[in-house]
Design goal:
Order of helices and strands: EHEHEHEHHEHEHEHHEHEH
Number of domains: 1
Helix content: 40-55%
Protein name: Luciferase-like monooxygenase
Pfam families: Bac_luciferase (PF00296)
Largest sheet: 8 strands, parallel, barrel
Family: To bacterial alkanal monooxygenase alpha and beta chains.
Shape: globular
Number of strands: 9
Distance between the termini: 9 Å
GO molecular function: oxidoreductase activity, acting on paired donors, with incorporation or reduction of molecular oxygen
Structural class: alpha/beta
């Protein structure tokens, strides 16, 4: 089994009793910590009109984190939701980021707005259906980054000629076809949309066409990972994650809560089914347990990179979780002899 690098997805989630400023500081600490442990990249996700997520101004936060780290870890978007922005604005923002931090910035692109429809209209008022032009907008974005755009009347400065690797984000099969057709790396959101994951990556690999950016398919899967000294402790920490997803299902969203026994509604069969459909790729346990679980996942799917999101309430426990996973990496768990 090939070596698989490990990366991190962060949303700057606000924990109960904290605020956005604290969430951002904690995200910087996660970035520095995982960089010191050898993680490949940290991505920030764009969400809007969500009271307990502080990553709405994603490009700003990417710049903040890139400036706070040592340059060994890549920083990027997982993703920028292209329906909310003009391609020119994205090219200028990420051209600026890549000019300040050359060779360290990634641009992952999503086709959903990352919010409700009313908020989406407020973000980009003149085009409520832009997501259906996703491919055309990606091509326009590539043109702005290209030196071939130098004769155009509209150009991106900074941006033109700047190296900013593009990724296609997906949670369905539509994105798989697009990533394959454009010859771009493909990142799948299996941490909340696992149902179509295997089908999507099969479609992507089967239909992939080489491009100037990429000559072979490259799949990154994002999953939930929570590690602790013991399986029991990891399972207890995961109750915060379960409560977060319960809030999504019941539309009663709250700040990330401390681990605690789960409420009665958790055991409702319909709720269990909904949770299973969203959290299928959730891996918890000690390092030994994760060695077994994650190795099996990598072998089964053949992914090229593993991205993990770890919604753990206690900051020290969260940092320790990343450390345990790094030990799993260093012990060649993802590259066994």
């Amino acid at each position: 089994m090939k070596y698989v690098p490990v990366s991190v997805l962060e949303l700057a989630v606000v924990s109960e009793g904290d605020n956005a400023a604290t969430a951002i500081r904690n995200t910087v600490e996660v970035a520095r910590h995982t960089e010191s442990l050898g993680y490949k990249r940290i991505w920030l996700a764009e969400h809007h009109n969500m009271e307990h997520i502080a990553s709405s101004a994603t490009a700003v936060l990417i710049g903040h984190i890139a400036g706070a780290t040592a340059g060994k870890i890549r920083v990027g978007s997982g993703g920028i939701m292209l329906p909310n922005h003009s391609p020119l604005a994205v090219a200028e923002q990420f051209g600026t980021l890549a000019s300040i931090y050359p060779g360290k910035i990634d641009l992952g692109l999503g086709r959903a707005p990352g919010t409700d429809q009313q908020t989406a209209l407020a973000l980009r008022r003149n085009n409520g259906y832009v997501e259906y032009d996703f491919q055309a907008e990606i091509l326009q974005l590539q043109k702005y980054f290209s030196t071939n755009n130098k004769f155009s009347k509209v150009r991106a400065f900074p941006g033109e000629g700047v190296e900013v690797p593009l990724w296609i984000l997906g949670s369905s099969t539509d994105s798989a076809y697009l990533a394959a057709a454009l010859g771009l790396p493909y990142a799948f959101a299996a941490h909340f949309a696992p149902k179509m994951f295997k089908t999507a990556i099969e479609i992507y690999r089967k239909n992939f066409r080489p491009s100037a950016q990429l000559d072979m398919p490259y799949v990154m899967a994002c999953v939930n990972v929570l590690a602790a000294d013991t399986d029991e402790e990891a399972e207890f920490l995961s109750t915060s994650l379960y409560r977060m997803f319960l809030g999504i299902i019941t539309n009663e969203r709250k700040p990330l809560q401390a681990p605690a026994p789960l409420p009665t509604i958790f055991h409702n069969p319909e709720v269990q089914q909904a949770l299973q459909s969203m959290m299928y790729y959730t891996f918890t346990g000690s390092g030994q347990a994760l060695q077994r679980k994650l190795s099996a996942f990598v072998a089964e799917t053949g992914i090229d990179e593993l991205m993990m999101t770890s919604h753990i309430y206690d900051k020290a426990a969260k940092l320790k979780s990343f450390f345990i996973v790094s030990e799993v990496m260093n012990n060649q768990i993802f590259n066994p002899i």
